[in-house]
Amino acid sequence: MAKTSMIERNNKRKRLAKKFKPQRTRLKAIAADRALPPEDRFAARLKLAELPRNSSPTRIRNRCDLTGRPRGYYRKLRMSRIALRELGSQGLIPGMVKSSW
Fold it and tell me: Which domains, and CATH codes, for the chain?
């Protein structure tokens, strides 16, 4: 089980990214538009830099929904390999059987 503080920090980053997404996309569009004057584009870049660092979606870490583990994460299942194996062994995942030889 991951530290609760790390899980909460990641949840805070998700909330911030969701909150600032419209503002961030608008500023990025302005900064990337080559038809606008360079002063406006530079001003948009400065405004983008003033946004909270944790509001960037790049800073969000994929974590297991069950345990909070950051490594060995399957995106499709939204869980770690260890949690997947435990659920598979218990027979809670349809069609999955633990292999043994």
Answer: 1-61 (1.10.287.1480), 62-93 (no CATH)
| CA 7/CA 18 separation, integer angstroms | 17
pLDDT in tens, the chain (101 residues): 889 999 999 999 999 999 999 999 999 999 999 999 999 999 999 999 999 999 999 999 999 999 999 999 999 999 999 999 999 989 899 988 877 77
End-to-end CA distance of the chain, in Å?
A: 30
Residues 93 and 76 sit within 8 Å (Cβ to Cβ):
no
Q: pTM for this structure?
A: 0.84
